[in-house]
Write a structure and sequence with these properties.
The protein folds into two domains: about 5-205 and about 395-405, Rossmann fold (3-Layer(aba) Sandwich); about 210-390, 3-Layer(aba) Sandwich (Rossmann fold), CATH 3.40.50. A seven-stranded parallel beta sheet has the order 7-4-3-8-9-10-11, with helices on both faces. It is built from 15 helices and 17 strands. Helix 7 packs across helix 10 (about 300-305) and helix 13 (about 360-375) packs across helix 14. It is about 35% helix and about 20% strand. The chain has about 425 residues and is an alpha/beta fold. The longest helix is centred in the middle third of the chain and has 15 residues, at about 160-175. Helix 1 links the parallel strand 3 (about 25-30) and strand 4 (about 50-55). It is globular.
C-alpha cells in the first residue's frame, strides 16, 4: 500500500519546474532515544504499511539503559521499546553524551545515513541538539521536513534574552516545511516564531491509554494493598505526585499544601527521585501526612496512579506534562499548574480537575478539601477525565498522523 501526496503549496525547492503527484510512503523520523510515548504511534504506522524508520541519535541508550540526569539514577524501562518497527542507532561521538545539553548529541554520519535510506519526508523531533539542528539545515530544500516539538511561550521573562531567542528561532523555523503542534500554547509558540497557519498541523501528545486503563479492578486492588503497606488510613484522600524531584517540577509545593492540611484526613504521596529528595524528606519529617516512594518503572505506574485519589503537577515550567494524560487515563482528576502546557487543553475546571496559579494555594486546599468531603465527586471527575482521553490516545494520534501524511501538499523537486 502506498501513500500519495499532492504537492501544491508555495514552498520552493531548487530546480522545481512542474507540480506533480509523487507516491510517498517513506518517512524517516529523528529521535534522540526510545521513549515509551512514541512507540505506540510508530508501531501503529508500521502496521498500516507506512514505510517508517527511526534514527536514534543517542546511541549510548542502545542497550535500553541510560543515566537520567533528572532522576539522578540509571534508568532501564521494563516495557519493550525496540519491537515491531524498523530503527537504527546512529553513532553519537559527543564527549559528554546525553540529552541534557545541546552538544550531547553529535552524529557525524546522521544525514548521510538518512539519505542512504532515501526518505520522502524527514520528521525531526526537536532542534535543541547539535545533530538535530544540523539535520534540519541539511535537508532544507532537499527533502520536506516535518518538525515536531511542544515548546510554549509560558516562561518567557528577560526581554533581551527573549528577543535574541525569538530572532534565532525564527531563523530555525524558516528551514522547516510543516510543524506539528500538540496544543494551544504550542500552536501560539510556532505562530510567534514565524510559521504560518497553513504550515501547522495538529498532532496531540498521546499515551497508551489501554496500558493505563485496564485491568482497572486488578490495578485498583494492588493500589489499595500498597496504600495499606504504607500505613495510609483507608478514609484518607491521597494527593499524588509522581515524577522527578527537581526544582523545575516544584515538588516542594506539596509540602506547602501538606502543612495546611495537617488536621484533615488527607495524605500526600510523593513518588520519584532527584536532587531535591534529601531536602524534601528532611522538611517533611515534622509532617505526619507525607509519604515517599522511590522511582517506579512503567509496569508499576498504572498502580501508582491509582494509589492517588487526585494527581497534582505543580511545575514552574513544563512544555506539556504527559503524566497528566496518564493519570486521567487511570480515571483520576488532576490539579495542574497554569505553567504546564497541557493545562489549557486538558483541564476543564471542576470537571477533570483544576488548574491553578502557584501563588494560589488556597484554591488548591479548597479543592482538596472538597474532594475529601465528597469521595463520590472525586470518582465522578475521574470517570469524566478518563473519557476525555479518547482524544489523546495512541490510536488517535496514529490516525491523526496517518491522515496528515495522506493530506500534506507541498512542492517536490524533480528527481
Amino acid at each position: 500500500m502506498s501513500i500519495e501526496f499532492t504537492h501544491t503549496t508555495n514552498i520552493h525547492y531548487p530546480n522545481l519546474s512542474v507540480r506533480q503527484r509523487i507516491p510517498c510512503s517513506r518517512l524517516a523520523v529523528v529521535l534522540s532515544h526510545p521513549i515509551q510515548y512514541h512507540i505506540p504511534w510508530i508501531k501503529g504506522l508500521t502496521d498500516r504499511k507506512v514505510k517508517i524508520k527511526i534514527f536514534y541519535t543517542w546511541s549510548q541508550s542502545e542497550n535500553g539503559s541510560y543515566f537520567d540526569e533528572g532522576f539522578g539514577r540509571q534508568i532501564k524501562w521494563d516495557i519493550p521499546l525496540l519491537e515491531g518497527y524498523e530503527y537504527q542507532f546512529v553513532k553519537n561521538t559527543a564527549k559528554k553524551p546525553g540529552t541534557h545539553h545541546f552538544f550531547g548529541i553529535m552524529n557525524p554520519t546522521l544525514n548521510e545515513e538518512i539519505e542512504a535510506w532515501a526518505p520522502d519526508y524527514v520528521m525531526i523531533h526537536g532542534w535543541n541538539f547539535y545533530s538535530h539542528l544540523n539535520c534540519i539545515l541539511h535537508f532544507h530544500k532537499k527533502t520536506p521536513i516535518i518538525f515536531a516539538g511542544d515548546s510554549t511561550l509560558l516562561n518567557e521573562t528577560n526581554f533581551i534574552r527573549k528577543l535574541a531567542r525569538r530572532i534565532f528561532l525564527k531563523w530555525v523555523y524558516q528551514h522547516v516545511d510543516f510543524a506539528c503542534y500538540a496544543g494551544a500554547h504550542n500552536k501560539n509558540y510556532f505562530i510567534k516564531h514565524g510559521l504560518n497557519r497553513s504550515q501547522l498541523k495538529y498532532l496531540p501528545h498521546s499515551v497508551d491509554t489501554q496500558l493505563f486503563s485496564e485491568p482497572d479492578e486488578e490495578y485498583g486492588k494492588s493500589a489499595d494493598a500498597w496504600r495499606n503497606e504504607l500505613g495510609i488510613p483507608r478514609d484518607h484522600l491521597v494527593v499524588l505526585y509522581a515524577g522527578k524531584l527537581i526544582p523545575v517540577k516544584n515538588p516542594g509545593f506539596l509540602l506547602k499544601l501538606a502543612s495546611a492540611c495537617t488536621e484533615l484526613p488527607i495524605t500526600f504521596l510523593i513518588v520519584g527521585n532527584g536532587s531535591l529528595e534529601e531536602d524534601l524528606k528532611k522538611e517533611a519529617q515534622h509532617l505526619g501526612n507525607v509519604k515517599f516512594l522511590d522511582f517506579q518503572n512503567q509496569q508499576q505506574m498504572p498502580i501508582i496512579y491509582r494509589m492517588g485519589d487526585v494527581f497534582i503537577l505543580p511545575s514552574i515550567s513544563e512544555t506539556w506534562g504527559l503524566c497528566i494524560s496518564e493519570a486521567m487515563a487511570c480515571g483520576r482528576p488532576v490539579m495542574v499548574s497554569e505553567l504546564v502546557g497541557c493545562a489549557i487543553d486538558m483541564v476543564e475546571e471542576y470537571k477533570t480537575g483544576i488548574s491553578f496559579n502557584l501563588d494560589d494555594t488556597e484554591k488548591c486546599i479548597a479543592f482538596i478539601k472538597k474532594l475529601s468531603e465528597n469521595k463520590m465527586l472525586s470518582k465522578e471527575m475521574g470517570e469524566y477525565a478518563k473519557s476525555r482521553m479518547e482524544g489523546f490516545s495512541a490510536d488517535h494520534k496514529t490516525d491523526k498522523l496517518y491522515n496528515l501524511l495522506n493530506s500534506l501538499e507541498i512542492n517536490q523537486p524533480l528527481q
